[in-house]
TrEMBL record:
<comment type="similarity">
    <text>Belongs to the cytochrome b5 family.</text>
</comment>
<keyword id="KW-0812">Transmembrane</keyword>
<dbReference type="InterPro" id="IPR036400">
    <property type="entry name" value="Cyt_B5-like_heme/steroid_sf"/>
</dbReference>
<keyword id="KW-1133">Transmembrane helix</keyword>
<dbReference type="GO" id="GO:0020037">
    <property type="term" value="F:heme binding"/>
</dbReference>
<protein>
    <recommendedName>
        <fullName>Cytochrome b5 heme-binding domain-containing protein</fullName>
    </recommendedName>
</protein>
<keyword id="KW-0408">Iron</keyword>
<dbReference type="InterPro" id="IPR018506">
    <property type="entry name" value="Cyt_B5_heme-BS"/>
</dbReference>
<feature type="transmembrane region" description="Helical">
    <location>
        <begin position="107"/>
        <end position="125"/>
    </location>
</feature>
<dbReference type="GO" id="GO:0046872">
    <property type="term" value="F:metal ion binding"/>
</dbReference>
<keyword id="KW-0349">Heme</keyword>
<dbReference type="InterPro" id="IPR050668">
    <property type="entry name" value="Cytochrome_b5"/>
</dbReference>
<dbReference type="GO" id="GO:0016020">
    <property type="term" value="C:membrane"/>
</dbReference>
<feature type="domain" description="Cytochrome b5 heme-binding">
    <location>
        <begin position="2"/>
        <end position="78"/>
    </location>
</feature>
<keyword id="KW-0479">Metal-binding</keyword>
<dbReference type="InterPro" id="IPR001199">
    <property type="entry name" value="Cyt_B5-like_heme/steroid-bd"/>
</dbReference>
<dbReference type="Pfam" id="PF00173">
    <property type="entry name" value="Cyt-b5"/>
</dbReference>
Length: 126
């Protein structure tokens, strides 16, 4: 059974020797990972004892990083202390991003409108 932590309990795990972070309501002990973290030890230490979900997702960690963090899982946040899980930002995928007429029109409309006004202005004044 997973160990259950309150956020207050995790907030006490903020030293270099005892550093825990919360990502998506799961608690990770990163004390032994500080020096191995490719993003450096500081970001982890700055977030020790706190919820680091936003930072973790904003960095856009790879699938490897997501799998790697499971090695450090020590428990979960108590149900009454859980926060809404943040969705990772959608990856921009050229292969699945379709070009549409309305998308093209969104981009072309302002310069076309400007050109039309300029031409009409020229005809009217000259
Ligand atoms: C147990 C949790 C974590 C694991 C296993 C982990 C793992 C990794 C890995 C493998 C990378 C290399 C890039 C990649 O593969 O995505 C990385 C980069 C990085 N991580 Fe983490 N990370 C964790 C938590 C965090 C947290 C909580 C933060 C922010 C507070 C953070 C900030 C960064 C930054 C800034 C980089 C460098 C990105 C770059 O150079 O572009 N990481 N991390």
């Amino acid at each position: 059974m997973a160990k259950i932590f309150t956020r207050k309990q995790v907030s006490e795990l903020e030293s270099k020797e005892n550093a825990a972070i919360i990502i998506d309501n799961v608690v990770y002990d990163v004390s032994g990972f500080l020096e191995d973290h490719p993003g450096g030890p500081e970001v982890l230490l700055n977030n020790a004892g706190q919820d680091a979900s936003r930072c973790f997702h904003e960095v856009g960690h790879s699938e490897d990083a997501r799998a790697w963090r499971e090695r450090f899982r020590i428990g979960e946040i108590a149900a009454e202390d859980c926060w809404e899980v943040l969705k990772p930002p959608p990856a921009f995928d050229v292969a699945t991003t379709k070009l549409t007429w309305s998308g093209a029109l969104d981009v072309l409309a302002p310069p076309l409108l400007f050109a039309a006004v300029a031409v009409l202005g020229y005809i009217y004044f000259f």
